[in-house]
Protein backbone atom coordinates (compact mmCIF):
# COMPACT_ATOMS: atom_id res chain seq x y z
CA UNK A 1 0.00 0.00 0.00
CA UNK A 2 1.27 3.47 -0.93
CA UNK A 3 0.18 6.94 0.12
CA UNK A 4 -0.70 9.91 -2.02
CA UNK A 5 -0.72 13.51 -0.81
CA UNK A 6 -4.31 14.68 -0.57
CA UNK A 7 -5.41 16.74 -3.56
CA UNK A 8 -8.42 19.10 -3.70
CA UNK A 9 -11.60 17.41 -4.90
CA UNK A 10 -12.14 19.40 -7.75
CA UNK A 11 -38.15 6.91 -26.96
CA UNK A 12 -39.41 3.94 -25.12
CA UNK A 13 -41.66 5.32 -22.42
CA UNK A 14 -44.21 3.34 -20.44
CA UNK A 15 -45.63 6.49 -18.87
CA UNK A 16 -44.78 5.24 -15.37
CA UNK A 17 -45.02 7.63 -12.45
CA UNK A 18 -42.23 7.79 -9.88
CA UNK A 19 -43.31 9.43 -6.63
CA UNK A 20 -41.89 9.82 -3.17
CA UNK A 21 -45.06 11.17 -1.51
CA UNK A 22 -48.65 9.89 -1.62
CA UNK A 23 -51.97 11.34 -0.56
CA UNK A 24 -53.84 9.44 2.16
CA UNK A 25 -57.13 11.01 3.18
CA UNK A 26 -56.38 14.55 4.29
CA UNK A 27 -52.75 13.72 4.95
CA UNK A 28 -49.68 13.45 2.77
CA UNK A 29 -47.52 10.42 3.47
CA UNK A 30 -43.85 10.25 2.52
CA UNK A 31 -42.63 6.90 1.34
CA UNK A 32 -39.95 5.56 3.71
CA UNK A 33 -36.32 6.36 2.98
CA UNK A 34 -37.31 8.95 0.36
CA UNK A 35 -33.78 9.47 -1.02
CA UNK A 36 -33.20 5.74 -1.45
CA UNK A 37 -36.66 5.35 -3.02
CA UNK A 38 -35.90 8.12 -5.51
CA UNK A 39 -32.54 6.64 -6.48
CA UNK A 40 -33.99 3.12 -6.79
CA UNK A 41 -36.82 4.15 -9.12
CA UNK A 42 -34.47 6.37 -11.16
CA UNK A 43 -31.99 3.51 -11.49
CA UNK A 44 -34.60 1.01 -12.67
CA UNK A 45 -36.04 3.51 -15.14
CA UNK A 46 -32.59 4.09 -16.65
CA UNK A 47 -31.86 0.33 -16.79
CA UNK A 48 -35.12 -0.24 -18.66
CA UNK A 49 -34.41 2.65 -21.02
CA UNK A 50 -30.90 1.41 -21.85
CA UNK A 51 -32.14 -2.15 -22.35
CA UNK A 52 -34.71 -0.85 -24.86
CA UNK A 53 -32.43 1.57 -26.72
CA UNK A 54 -29.03 -0.18 -26.83
CA UNK A 55 -27.63 -3.65 -27.53
CA UNK A 56 -25.89 -3.69 -24.16
CA UNK A 57 -26.27 -6.29 -21.44
CA UNK A 58 -27.45 -4.21 -18.48
CA UNK A 59 -26.78 -4.93 -14.82
CA UNK A 60 -26.78 -2.93 -11.60
CA UNK A 61 -25.02 -2.73 -8.23
CA UNK A 62 -21.73 -4.46 -9.08
CA UNK A 63 -18.43 -4.38 -7.20
CA UNK A 64 -16.04 -2.17 -9.17
CA UNK A 65 -12.69 -2.30 -7.39
CA UNK A 66 -9.71 -4.67 -7.31
CA UNK A 67 -7.77 -4.40 -4.05
CA UNK A 68 -11.02 -4.02 -2.08
CA UNK A 69 -13.83 -5.19 -4.43
CA UNK A 70 -16.66 -4.17 -2.11
CA UNK A 71 -15.36 -0.67 -1.48
CA UNK A 72 -16.68 0.70 -4.79
CA UNK A 73 -20.04 -0.36 -6.21
CA UNK A 74 -21.09 0.94 -9.63
CA UNK A 75 -24.79 1.69 -9.98
CA UNK A 76 -25.24 0.49 -13.57
CA UNK A 77 -22.91 -1.43 -15.88
CA UNK A 78 -23.47 -1.73 -19.61
CA UNK A 79 -21.63 -4.62 -21.24
CA UNK A 80 -21.13 -3.97 -24.96
CA UNK A 81 -21.10 -7.30 -26.86
CA UNK A 82 -17.93 -8.31 -28.69
CA UNK A 83 -17.14 -10.65 -31.57
CA UNK A 84 -17.46 -13.81 -29.42
CA UNK A 85 -20.70 -12.81 -27.71
CA UNK A 86 -22.82 -15.55 -29.33
CA UNK A 87 -20.29 -18.17 -28.26
CA UNK A 88 -20.42 -16.92 -24.67
CA UNK A 89 -24.22 -16.86 -24.72
CA UNK A 90 -24.33 -20.48 -25.87
CA UNK A 91 -22.39 -21.76 -22.83
CA UNK A 92 -24.62 -20.73 -19.93
CA UNK A 93 -27.01 -17.99 -18.84
CA UNK A 94 -25.32 -17.71 -15.44
CA UNK A 95 -22.01 -16.28 -14.28
CA UNK A 96 -18.83 -18.18 -15.09
CA UNK A 97 -16.44 -17.64 -12.14
CA UNK A 98 -13.44 -15.63 -13.26
CA UNK A 99 -11.10 -17.82 -11.22
CA UNK A 100 -12.32 -20.86 -13.17
CA UNK A 101 -11.34 -19.11 -16.39
CA UNK A 102 -7.91 -18.12 -15.06
CA UNK A 103 -7.14 -21.51 -13.47
CA UNK A 104 -4.96 -24.31 -14.90
CA UNK A 105 -7.81 -26.55 -16.10
CA UNK A 106 -8.35 -26.51 -19.86
CA UNK A 107 -10.37 -28.27 -22.53
CA UNK A 108 -7.58 -30.76 -23.09
CA UNK A 109 -6.00 -30.45 -19.65
CA UNK A 110 -7.58 -32.01 -16.58
CA UNK A 111 -6.21 -31.21 -13.14
CA UNK A 112 -6.95 -32.55 -9.69
CA UNK A 113 -9.94 -30.89 -8.12
CA UNK A 114 -7.80 -29.49 -5.30
CA UNK A 115 -5.59 -27.72 -7.88
CA UNK A 116 -8.30 -26.43 -10.24
CA UNK A 117 -8.56 -22.95 -8.68
CA UNK A 118 -6.11 -20.97 -6.57
CA UNK A 119 -7.22 -19.88 -3.10
CA UNK A 120 -8.44 -21.24 0.20
CA UNK A 121 -10.37 -24.56 0.14
CA UNK A 122 -13.56 -22.82 1.34
CA UNK A 123 -13.66 -20.29 -1.49
CA UNK A 124 -12.25 -22.51 -4.24
CA UNK A 125 -14.85 -25.24 -3.71
CA UNK A 126 -17.69 -22.75 -4.07
CA UNK A 127 -16.17 -21.43 -7.32
CA UNK A 128 -15.69 -24.98 -8.64
CA UNK A 129 -19.32 -25.85 -7.89
CA UNK A 130 -20.45 -22.65 -9.60
CA UNK A 131 -18.38 -23.49 -12.69
CA UNK A 132 -19.81 -27.01 -12.77
CA UNK A 133 -23.36 -25.67 -12.42
CA UNK A 134 -22.61 -23.27 -15.30
CA UNK A 135 -21.51 -26.24 -17.44
CA UNK A 136 -18.05 -24.70 -17.79
CA UNK A 137 -16.32 -27.35 -15.66
CA UNK A 138 -16.87 -31.09 -15.78
CA UNK A 139 -15.69 -33.70 -13.26
CA UNK A 140 -13.84 -36.85 -14.29
CA UNK A 141 -12.28 -39.65 -12.29
CA UNK A 142 -8.71 -40.67 -12.98
CA UNK A 143 -6.98 -43.28 -10.82
CA UNK A 144 -9.52 -42.80 -8.05
CA UNK A 145 -9.18 -39.00 -7.93
CA UNK A 146 -11.58 -36.30 -9.09
CA UNK A 147 -10.17 -34.22 -11.92
CA UNK A 148 -11.56 -31.00 -13.36
CA UNK A 149 -11.64 -30.07 -17.03
CA UNK A 150 -13.18 -27.19 -18.96
CA UNK A 151 -16.02 -28.19 -21.26
CA UNK A 152 -15.17 -25.48 -23.78
CA UNK A 153 -12.60 -22.77 -24.37
CA UNK A 154 -13.54 -19.47 -22.81
CA UNK A 155 -14.39 -16.84 -25.48
CA UNK A 156 -12.12 -14.00 -24.33
CA UNK A 157 -13.52 -11.52 -26.88
CA UNK A 158 -17.16 -11.91 -25.87
CA UNK A 159 -17.42 -8.35 -24.61
CA UNK A 160 -15.97 -5.29 -26.28
CA UNK A 161 -16.47 -2.50 -23.74
CA UNK A 162 -17.70 -1.84 -20.21
CA UNK A 163 -19.71 1.32 -19.55
CA UNK A 164 -19.90 2.44 -15.91
CA UNK A 165 -22.83 4.67 -14.90
CA UNK A 166 -23.17 6.44 -11.57
CA UNK A 167 -26.70 7.60 -10.76
CA UNK A 168 -27.35 10.79 -8.85
CA UNK A 169 -30.87 11.98 -9.67
CA UNK A 170 -30.60 14.99 -7.35
CA UNK A 171 -27.32 16.89 -7.63
CA UNK A 172 -28.28 19.12 -4.70
CA UNK A 173 -27.50 16.07 -2.55
CA UNK A 174 -24.25 14.88 -4.14
CA UNK A 175 -22.95 12.95 -1.14
CA UNK A 176 -19.56 11.43 -1.97
CA UNK A 177 -20.13 11.69 -5.73
CA UNK A 178 -16.85 13.42 -6.68
CA UNK A 179 -14.81 10.92 -4.66
CA UNK A 180 -16.58 7.96 -6.29
CA UNK A 181 -15.96 9.29 -9.78
CA UNK A 182 -12.28 9.97 -8.99
CA UNK A 183 -11.94 6.31 -7.95
CA UNK A 184 -13.41 5.14 -11.28
CA UNK A 185 -11.23 7.42 -13.39
CA UNK A 186 -8.01 6.61 -11.53
CA UNK A 187 -8.54 2.85 -11.67
CA UNK A 188 -9.81 2.62 -15.25
CA UNK A 189 -11.83 -0.59 -15.15
CA UNK A 190 -14.53 0.89 -17.39
CA UNK A 191 -13.93 2.14 -20.91
CA UNK A 192 -16.08 5.15 -20.11
CA UNK A 193 -17.71 6.50 -16.95
CA UNK A 194 -20.96 8.48 -17.04
CA UNK A 195 -22.92 10.41 -14.45
CA UNK A 196 -26.71 10.19 -14.90
CA UNK A 197 -28.90 12.77 -13.22
CA UNK A 198 -32.43 14.18 -13.34
CA UNK A 199 -31.21 17.62 -12.24
CA UNK A 200 -30.83 20.48 -14.69
CA UNK A 201 -27.06 20.47 -15.17
CA UNK A 202 -25.34 23.84 -14.89
CA UNK A 203 -21.78 24.92 -15.60
CA UNK A 204 -21.17 24.93 -11.85
CA UNK A 205 -22.17 21.25 -11.70
CA UNK A 206 -19.84 20.36 -14.57
CA UNK A 207 -16.94 22.14 -12.91
CA UNK A 208 -17.27 19.85 -9.89
CA UNK A 209 -17.35 16.67 -11.98
CA UNK A 210 -14.03 15.22 -13.24
CA UNK A 211 -13.47 16.18 -16.88
CA UNK A 212 -13.23 12.55 -18.05
CA UNK A 213 -16.75 11.75 -16.81
CA UNK A 214 -19.62 12.00 -19.27
CA UNK A 215 -22.92 13.50 -18.13
CA UNK A 216 -26.47 12.49 -19.03
CA UNK A 217 -29.67 14.24 -18.03
CA UNK A 218 -32.40 11.60 -17.84
CA UNK A 219 -36.10 12.12 -17.17
CA UNK A 220 -37.39 8.95 -15.53
CA UNK A 221 -41.01 9.90 -16.26
CA UNK A 222 -40.66 10.48 -20.01
CA UNK A 223 -37.58 8.38 -20.84
CA UNK A 224 -35.90 11.41 -22.39
CA UNK A 225 -32.10 11.18 -22.22
CA UNK A 226 -29.91 14.14 -23.16
CA UNK A 227 -26.14 13.90 -23.48
CA UNK A 228 -24.74 16.95 -21.71
CA UNK A 229 -21.10 15.92 -22.04
CA UNK A 230 -19.43 13.01 -23.80
CA UNK A 231 -17.15 10.81 -21.65
CA UNK A 232 -13.44 10.43 -22.30
CA UNK A 233 -11.96 7.05 -23.22
CA UNK A 234 -10.10 5.56 -20.25
CA UNK A 235 -6.96 3.42 -20.45
CA UNK A 236 -8.25 -0.02 -19.51
CA UNK A 237 -5.20 -1.95 -20.75
CA UNK A 238 -2.60 -0.13 -18.66
CA UNK A 239 -1.95 -0.25 -14.88
CA UNK A 240 -4.23 1.81 -12.69
CA UNK A 241 -4.38 3.28 -9.20
CA UNK A 242 -7.14 2.29 -6.80
CA UNK A 243 -7.82 5.08 -4.32
CA UNK A 244 -8.28 3.82 -0.77
CA UNK A 245 -9.21 5.53 2.47
CA UNK A 246 -8.82 9.27 2.90
CA UNK A 247 -6.84 10.61 5.86
CA UNK A 248 -6.19 14.15 7.05
CA UNK A 249 -2.92 14.47 5.14
CA UNK A 250 -2.97 11.69 2.56
CA UNK A 251 -5.03 9.19 0.60
CA UNK A 252 -4.14 5.51 0.52
CA UNK A 253 -3.48 4.23 -2.98
CA UNK A 254 -3.14 0.68 -4.29
CA UNK A 255 -1.30 0.11 -7.61
CA UNK A 256 -3.20 -2.31 -9.85
CA UNK A 257 -1.41 -4.12 -12.66
CA UNK A 258 -2.78 -4.44 -16.18
CA UNK A 259 -3.26 -8.19 -15.60
CA UNK A 260 -5.26 -7.55 -12.43
CA UNK A 261 -7.42 -5.06 -14.34
CA UNK A 262 -8.00 -7.58 -17.12
CA UNK A 263 -9.24 -10.16 -14.62
CA UNK A 264 -11.36 -7.58 -12.78
CA UNK A 265 -13.01 -6.48 -16.03
CA UNK A 266 -13.79 -10.09 -16.89
CA UNK A 267 -15.23 -10.60 -13.39
CA UNK A 268 -17.45 -7.53 -13.74
CA UNK A 269 -18.63 -8.60 -17.20
CA UNK A 270 -19.45 -12.12 -16.01
CA UNK A 271 -21.34 -10.87 -12.96
CA UNK A 272 -23.27 -8.45 -15.15
CA UNK A 273 -24.19 -11.21 -17.59
CA UNK A 274 -25.37 -13.56 -14.86
CA UNK A 275 -27.12 -10.99 -12.66
CA UNK A 276 -28.98 -8.57 -14.91
CA UNK A 277 -30.85 -5.66 -13.32
CA UNK A 278 -34.15 -7.17 -12.15
CA UNK A 279 -32.56 -8.54 -8.98
CA UNK A 280 -35.34 -7.59 -6.56
CA UNK A 281 -38.09 -9.54 -4.85
CA UNK A 282 -41.64 -8.56 -5.68
CA UNK A 283 -43.90 -7.49 -2.80
CA UNK A 284 -46.26 -9.90 -1.07
CA UNK A 285 -49.13 -7.43 -1.38
CA UNK A 286 -52.45 -7.58 -3.23
CA UNK A 287 -51.73 -4.19 -4.84
CA UNK A 288 -48.35 -5.21 -6.27
CA UNK A 289 -47.98 -5.53 -10.02
CA UNK A 290 -45.20 -5.55 -12.59
CA UNK A 291 -44.92 -3.16 -15.49
CA UNK A 292 -44.24 -4.54 -19.00
CA UNK A 293 -40.51 -4.09 -18.41
CA UNK A 294 -40.65 -5.86 -15.04
CA UNK A 295 -40.46 -2.89 -12.69
CA UNK A 296 -42.38 -3.36 -9.40
CA UNK A 297 -45.51 -1.22 -9.34
CA UNK A 298 -48.15 -0.31 -6.76
CA UNK A 299 -51.64 -0.22 -8.29
CA UNK A 300 -53.12 1.45 -5.22
CA UNK A 301 -50.79 4.45 -5.23
CA UNK A 302 -50.07 4.32 -8.98
CA UNK A 303 -46.29 4.42 -8.79
CA UNK A 304 -43.09 2.42 -9.13
CA UNK A 305 -41.91 1.33 -5.71
CA UNK A 306 -38.90 -0.17 -3.98
CA UNK A 307 -40.28 -3.40 -2.48
CA UNK A 308 -37.52 -3.60 0.12
CA UNK A 309 -38.47 -0.24 1.63
CA UNK A 310 -42.04 0.64 0.66
CA UNK A 311 -44.07 -2.54 0.93
CA UNK A 312 -44.60 -3.80 4.47
CA UNK A 313 -47.09 -3.52 7.30
CA UNK A 314 -46.20 0.15 7.80
CA UNK A 315 -48.02 0.97 4.58
CA UNK A 316 -51.69 1.85 5.32
CA UNK A 317 -52.88 -0.11 2.26
CA UNK A 318 -50.69 -3.19 2.71
CA UNK A 319 -52.74 -6.34 2.11
CA UNK A 320 -50.87 -9.61 2.34
CA UNK A 321 -51.07 -11.77 -0.78
CA UNK A 322 -48.91 -13.91 -3.02
CA UNK A 323 -46.41 -11.83 -5.04
CA UNK A 324 -47.19 -11.21 -8.73
CA UNK A 325 -46.49 -14.11 -11.03
CA UNK A 326 -43.67 -13.26 -13.40
CA UNK A 327 -40.68 -14.83 -15.10
CA UNK A 328 -37.84 -12.34 -15.12
CA UNK A 329 -35.67 -14.68 -17.19
CA UNK A 330 -38.16 -14.83 -20.07
CA UNK A 331 -38.59 -11.06 -19.83
CA UNK A 332 -34.85 -10.48 -19.95
CA UNK A 333 -34.43 -12.92 -22.84
CA UNK A 334 -37.02 -11.16 -24.99
CA UNK A 335 -35.75 -7.63 -24.23
CA UNK A 336 -31.96 -8.02 -24.33
CA UNK A 337 -29.07 -9.89 -26.02
CA UNK A 338 -28.89 -12.27 -23.03
CA UNK A 339 -30.04 -15.84 -23.77
CA UNK A 340 -32.04 -17.85 -21.24
CA UNK A 341 -31.28 -21.56 -20.85
CA UNK A 342 -28.96 -22.05 -23.85
CA UNK A 343 -28.25 -25.56 -25.15
CA UNK A 344 -24.67 -25.55 -23.84
CA UNK A 345 -21.49 -26.59 -25.63
CA UNK A 346 -20.20 -29.50 -23.56
CA UNK A 347 -17.59 -31.41 -25.48
CA UNK A 348 -17.34 -35.08 -24.74
CA UNK A 349 -13.80 -36.08 -25.51
CA UNK A 350 -13.18 -39.77 -25.80
CA UNK A 351 -9.95 -41.65 -25.24
CA UNK A 352 -7.60 -41.08 -22.37
CA UNK A 353 -4.78 -40.32 -24.80
CA UNK A 354 -6.49 -37.02 -25.65
CA UNK A 355 -5.83 -35.62 -22.21
CA UNK A 356 -2.78 -34.18 -20.60
CA UNK A 357 -3.10 -34.84 -16.88
CA UNK A 358 -1.60 -32.55 -14.28
CA UNK A 359 -1.23 -33.45 -10.61
Q: Could you characterize what this model shows?
A:
This protein is α+β, with helices and mostly antiparallel strands and 359 residues long. It has helices at 34-53, 85-91, 98-102, 121-133, 177-187, 203-208, 258-275, 307-310, 328-335; strands at residues 2-5, 21-24, 27-30, 57-63, 73-81, 109-112, 137-142, 145-150, 159-167, 192-197, 214-219, 224-229, 240-246, 250-256, 288-290, 296-298, 303-304, 356-358. Strand 2 and strand 3 form a beta hairpin. The longest helix is centred in the first third of the chain and has 20 residues, at 34-53. The radius of gyration is 23 Å and the shape is globular. The two termini are 35 Å apart. Residues 1-20, 22-33 and 347-357 have low confidence and may be disordered.
Outline of the structure:
This protein is of the alpha+beta class. It has nine helices and 18 strands.
Rg from Cα: 23 Å
Global outline? globular
CATH class of the domain at 97-153 and 339-358: Mainly Alpha
Helix content: 25-40%
Number of helices: 9
Amino acid sequence: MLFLNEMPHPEHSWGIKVVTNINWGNSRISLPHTSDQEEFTFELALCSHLEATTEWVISRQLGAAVAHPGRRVIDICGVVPGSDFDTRSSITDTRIPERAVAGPAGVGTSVRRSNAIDGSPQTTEAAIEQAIAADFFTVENHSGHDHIRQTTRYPTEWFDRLIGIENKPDLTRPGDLTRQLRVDISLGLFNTVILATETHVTRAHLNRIPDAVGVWQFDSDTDDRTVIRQPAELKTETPGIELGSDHSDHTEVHPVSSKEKLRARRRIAERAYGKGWRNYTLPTCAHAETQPDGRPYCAKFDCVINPAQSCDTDCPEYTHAEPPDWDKNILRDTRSPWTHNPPGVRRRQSGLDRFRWAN
